Amino acid sequence: KSLSRSSVRSRMSLKPPKAYNSLQKGAPLWDPKPLQVKKIFEALKKGLNEYLEAHQAELDYLSGRHKDTKRNSRLAFYYDLDKQIRSVERYIRKLEFHISKVEELYEAYCIQCRLRDGATNMKHAFSLSPSTKASRESLVELYKNFQECTEDMCFIEGALEVHLGEFHVKMKGLVGFARLCPGDQYEVFVRLGRQKWRLKGKIETDDSQTWDEEEKIFIPNLHEKFEIKVTELRGLATILVGVVTCDSINFFTTKPQAIIVDITELGTIKLQLEVLW
User: Fold this and answer.
1) What pTM, to 2 d.p., does this model score?
2) pLDDT digits (tens, 9 = 90+) for 22-49
3) DSSP 8-state code for residue 251
4) Residue 14: which of 132, 105, 95 has the closest Cα?
5) Has domain 167-276 been given CATH number 3.90.1310.10?
């Protein structure tokens, strides 16, 4: 009748994020999205491994110079290199711990997902069989286990978001060829979940652009996409240019990512951003 399981939170040595402290029995839950979590996990792990490889290559280079310097007895430079090597080694250990924590969270998430799917299948099987006192008791127990698995998956999603880092988004300007004229003013609104960035810009006489803000930090979200809205300001009136959404999965990488999105359906006005993770 019972899946005989204890809460994943009692087995994991992590503190629940503040936003998820309300995940207690009876609290409203959202629907976990395992496929999206899998995509983010794979992109995150790949990006972290890229950082690890880059710093390992830096460590190898510094270690080689360290040996050469030691032979040449340039003590001041030798000690400076030694400090750099120790710093890189500490960062590599932090990255390795970060990767292991992410893997641990995702492994626990997959276990709860399988338990939840099993409870769903068993509920379906019992619902097709003749109703008896034992089957009704089993359905109640299965529903309880389903709710507990859902609660634990939501908790782990919140814990995993803590390890996603930051996106530094830079405004590079609008691209519009003949559509952009000197004196035109635009407002760009970028949203990621509850995070918002509103900035205004103007096309100058030399076709350059000035914006009142150039950079914003966003905290990545497992389920939300970037929503970008551009409006043209004409006196007291505003004219909607376009609204687009942009997935963040490709941003988990060591190199800055240039983003050019079509704001209008025909692509006559584009927005250019740069994202550094």
Assistant:
1) 0.80
2) 344 444 457 899 999 999 999 999 999 9
3) G
4) 105
5) no
